[in-house]
Fold:
Amino acid sequence: MNQSALFLIILLAPLAGFVLNGLFGKKLHALAGWIGSGAVLMSFICSLFLFQRIAADSTPLLFKLFQWLNVGNFQIDLSFQADRLSSVMLLVVTGVGFLIHVYSIAYMHHDEGFYKFFAYLNLFIFSMLLLVLGSNFVVMFFGWEGVGLCSYLLIGFWFNNEAYGKAARKAFVMNRIGDLGLLIGLFLIYFQFGTFEYSQVFEKVETGAYRPEILTAICLSLFIGATGKSAQIPLFTWLPDAMAGPTPVSALIHAATMVTAGIYMVVRCNVLFNYSPITRDVILYTGLLTSVVAALIGLKQNDIKKVLAYSTVSQLGLMFVALGCGAYSAALFHVVTHAFFKALLFLGSGSVIHALHGEQDIRNMGGLKKQLPITYWTFLIGTLAITGFPLFSGFFSKDEILLSLYDRSHWLYPIGLGSAFITAFYMFRLLFVTFHGKFRGAEEQQAHMHESPALMSVPLIILAVLSILGGLINLPHYTGNIAQGLHHWLSPVLADQPEHHHGFSTEMMFAALAVAGMLLALFLTRKKYLSDAVVPEADAEMTGMGKLIGQKFLIDEAYDAGFVQTTEHLSDGLHTWSDKKIIDGLVQQSGKLTGLMGGLVSKVQSGNIEWYLLLMVLAMAAILGVNLFI
Amino acid sequence: MELIILPLAGALLSWFGKNWNRQVSLLTSLATLALNLFWLSSFIPDGNLQFEHNFPWMSEGIRFHTAIDGLGMLLLLLTNILIPVILLSRWNMNADQNKHLLPLVLLMQAALNGVFTAANGMLFYVFWELALIPVYFICAKWGETDRIRITLKFFIYTFLGSVLMLASLLFLYWKTPGAHSFEWTELVAVNLSEAEAWWVGAGLLIAFLIKIPVFPFHTWQADTYTSSPAAGTMLLSGIMLKMGIFGMLRWYLPLVPEALHSQMPLVAVLSVAGVVYGGIIALRQHDLKRLAAYSSFSHVGLIAAGICTMSLNGFQGAAIQMFNHGVNIVALFFAISIIEQRMGNRSMDQLRGLASGSKPFAVLFMIAVLGTVAVPLTNGFPGELLLLQSIFASHALLGICAGLTIIFCAAYMLRMYQFSMFGQASEKQNGFSPLTTAEWLGMVTLAALVLVLGVYPQPLLDLTHASMNQLYDIIQERIALH
Structure:
């Protein structure tokens, strides 16, 4: 197939799905779900073809649609580029996206907004494709904002609920704070390089045609954008609230794809970040801190989706750690495996919520493994993958990151390891409390409990297989010839990559250390939640450090008091004082001085207005008429 | 010229049209639009004046001289597209009121078309004043309580600006050689000393800044927008404030280049201050109209600031944003008017869950909101990108402050949408009746513009490119000479 046609189908299929479902969805009923899924499947298949071409030849494929904006030297093309990096993202977005679409057909089938849901999902896929396929920063920004919009629409999907609406707005506004950073980064790029095209910008950086302080400003601004979209400190608090959206949305947008946009962007601009070591340090420390803080909060969450949400924040933090260490391929590797197992975990939690008719509190669950065997086994696989159980995908990708962290700093390594340990702890806690022990919910719930239909369980099984095998794409060095597949695949888009060879025994030692931590967590949680059958305490019973963690370090409250309320007070103050009293007061005072004029004008109102109006029309006509004919 | 006569004639006809006045008005406005589009088809955007009418009026120097260049064409299009939409918004309303209101809207159209085509300073001034009169009556006669006081303030305020403008134009007139002339070309050619230019410039500038309005000349605006009938608010916000921006581009910048280096930085700071100030105030408004008014104030501040950069991107950004802001703000006020007619109020405290009532309306309103929030691929984005880029390039810190608009605007617009459309609807709110054909037509037209011009903004930019380039060159040349 023609290359332009491939690009067009990949991009336009989801857009067509959006338009079709958006305009006629109501009449299409159940068909809406299949149209939505089919559109993404079409994108996926074409992405495979594109992937094949790029595998054969690593030169980026370009496709220019049209010139979007042209003002003097300021030219922006709506153009696209498929290369080694975007092809991987393409497959993840459309592949995982397709599975989640199919799952949603069953999950959402009772919802009255069924067609709307698929329209939004398709629009999201379209925006995400713009983001990863754009060949310049502005097209990426289109997608960047577009996914933010879809995220907003889908978090607030059940619009009758005001709390959900608030969560949706919070997500959008916090993202926009990051977006301002990104936008400033774009302006700086244009200022420094005179273009937005990736290839030209990177070429100029390579030749050293830049001022270092501006490059650092560019990188820092771009990273601010990344903290918004990828939920890093300080802009991470929107993501847990975003769980208000339907669960497939959490799986697709808030775990597998959109939130990894920040990582994609940094990998895309690796040439820039390589020349700004300061920014890389900032990224490293931000990522590490986020990873630990979010993991700690995850320990005390009792909402099944909230645990996974904090886990996502924490895992994203780990990916930024890799970026900060310059291990771009390791970061992307974790993006891919995380997309598999976190989508799996979220869909699994959706299956649980579906079975329990909306129950999300794990304290009211327990012992679900008997009634929900497929959900249980796939959830178990997801848990083993994220905790880094040997040979599961997360095992390889997490080790890769920890190893690069060790290379970067021996002192930071234990922190990363600690974060992984906490992850294992809260994940096993989640698994045991949810699926093992006795059921603690209402009897009625138990009676109605059922395993999810095939449309939901098949995607779960496929994702479970991917979560096990995902590691194959980038095996560690000690596996010899087949090692580091993704790393080699990406080498054309990555500038100089630090090659670290530790030898078999060192790598094994690190792997063993990580596994030991995981097993320790398994042992501890097993004893506490399985043998002793402890049920997590109610919020009010928490004390000391546990309470602080349970309250999420009061970060939301601090933001609320520090920023939201301050702005609100400022707004009220400006409106009632500055605007009405001071500025308008001055205007009124000076207005009184021109009382004469006012007196004249006010007389108009007492007269017969219609007469005045007619007079005016006639006068205007007369003036014109006189001039026309004389 | 024909674009002025046609609506005038329509206004007269409609005035005496008795029961047919809404049909007559709408047809007139559509005919004007058709004529405008016909001219557009043969218009060559090369910076030259076209469709010229030029003959002496009061004297050799005070001529009836109208002509169209790219910028003028853009604003004519804006005017003549929006007027039919505004008339549609009145379609189902009280016929007694419409009897006199609709002709006034057409009068307004005539005056506005005059403002955007005038090539003679006196003619510009006359149309500028004429445009004030119909809108004054619309607001004063059909507005809400307290309208008399508010519109009086508005009238005096803008009238004061007009007087200053007239004084400045007269001063320039006396400086023209020979028998004196108000012709634009003559006024541009006048050389002033720096002090003279400063005063002349200040007079013109204040008139335009009040009209736009730019901080701190804005206090007439929120009150007037709120108390006017929807049609008046749309006229004011959609088209009339563009007179101020147009004035800056056509009748201020090239006339007093000697004053620009001292005045533009100050205005830039004031404009950006207004962007932030208006944005913050809008965050807490409860009255939908008032919120939209502050939002508009914040957005036009950005346009003014872009002009102050005196860069091509700033000019082009201002031009395209003038058009798109007009579309977006009229769409917002249209939607608010639809809500108010059905629910009897427009306070966020009392509205909820209207999205359950009419889905098409919810979608169209959302598109208007997205355009205002300047989401990429809606019409608000290209202009905002150009404007912010130009401001950032001229002064990074100022650019960052102006950039705050993208955060504030998202916050207040989505809050507005949330508390009117989302949430649990009561029985009354569930009774939100479907859109009438007229409303549907109006909103769909605007929504289509939001999307089409967002995906493909270049035609608008091409239209004004040569004019803005010329303006840029004139200023650079004159500043260099100076």
